[in-house]
Amino acid sequence: MNNFKIRWLLSIIILLPFTLSISMAQIDNVEFLRAGATDGIKIIEAYMTPWANAFGAGLNGSWYNTAKPHKFGGFDITAGINVGVVPKSAGTYNVSDLGLTTLTGSGTASTVSGPDVNGPQLTKEASYESTTVTLASFSLPPGTNWRYIPVPTLQAGIGLPLGTELKARYIPKINIKDDGNISLWGIGLMHSIMQYIPGNKLLPIDVSLFGGYTKLQGNVAVSLQPKEPQNYSTYNPAIAFNDQKIAATVNALNIGVVASVNVPVITIYGGLGYSKTQTKISLEGNFPTPVLVATPTPHAEYNDSGVIKGSSIQPIDIKNFSGLRANVGIRIKLAVITIHADYTRAQYNVLSAGFGVSFR
């Protein structure tokens, strides 16, 4: 394999953790968790859903660039870039729709893909007798004005008996900035149904069934430190809040029928099927939140009763999406070198392109 191909494959491995780091860095400012876990995770869900779904849609891309499985013992190594596109309608959300229980405030706020403007001011208050104390007050985070989420993939396929091909994706755990890490694996299977049609070898057409599953796990560090006044007996503020992380698990499923027309050098391919993505986000570590203390006068204070533990918080299920998926693409093959590009139409559309080497 020449140096260009090696650099391409290495760039895919490097881009994946970089992509996740950039995506999850948008929630590095978790000031809204001072309101407590119940409302804080609702804000995370509403804010991150568009990018999470676009990332999941991208994981379903570049599984195939032909409907013809490898012959027994044939194989390919393919690197691809899939860009999940967030629809414009997912750029904002209504704060009143979140069902917040401890925060007051209303209006329209940006999701991570929406306008780069701060959202409405939200406030958490507590009352003691005739005194009202503000425990937390903050503006909801701005968006990025960015709707395109690149998702690199690197996979291998090998021909099995009976017109079947096994595909696999794997990236071992890679450390990313601030003690975060990421890992990925996936498996796919393609089986020719054209082989059961009499005279199929006379036609330049292939039709196969395909199914693929990908799972990505990663986490990045965040920081939410206590403010004054504080009165901890169990927790040491210097170290107790230094292990905070936001972790994500993304599952992507893609099943359907794939067809291709093969002529010398060029292959036109397409697929129709069903896709589903599922994203879970969880908090790890200890997070300080202010609580109301009545004496000597009512005030907000950081103490043991205000610490929330990531392990005790229910993981956030991002509003997952599923439905029909259709795509069409073109592949050019020069000797053993393949170049492909395709477009997928779904709830979150995907643009894909890739490069590989393929034998038999």
Mean pLDDT figure: 86
Q: What is the H/E order?
A: HHEEEEEEEEEEEEEEEEEEEE
Number of domains: 1
Q: N-to-C terminal Cα separation, in Å? A: 17 Å
The largest sheet is: 10 strands, antiparallel, barrel
Low-confidence stretches: 1-18
Content of β-strand? over 45%
Number of strands: 20
Which range best describes the helical content: under 10%, 10-25%, 25-40%, 40-55%, 55-70% or over 70%?
A: 10-25%
The 3D shape can be described as elongated
Class derived from helix and strand content = mainly beta
| Oligomer type | single chain
Separate helix tally: 2
Structural overview:
- A hairpin with a 4-residue loop joins β19 and β20.
- Mean pLDDT is 86; it is low at 1-18.
- Helices cover 13% and strands 49% of the residues.
- It is mainly beta and 360 residues long.
- The longest helix is centred in the N-terminal third of the chain and has 23 residues, at 3-25.
List the helices and strands and how they pair.
Elements: H1 3-25, H2 37-59, E1 75-85, E2 92-94, E3 108-110, E4 121-128, E5 131-139, E6 148-160, E7 164-176, E8 180-192, E9 205-221, E10 230-231, E11 245-262, E12 266-284, E13 286-288, E14 291-293, E15 299-303, E16 307-309, E17 316-317, E18 321-334, E19 337-345, E20 350-359
Parallel strand pairs: 10-15
Antiparallel strand pairs: 1-6, 1-20, 2-3, 4-5, 6-7, 7-8, 8-9, 9-11, 11-12, 12-17, 12-18, 13-16, 14-15, 18-19, 19-20
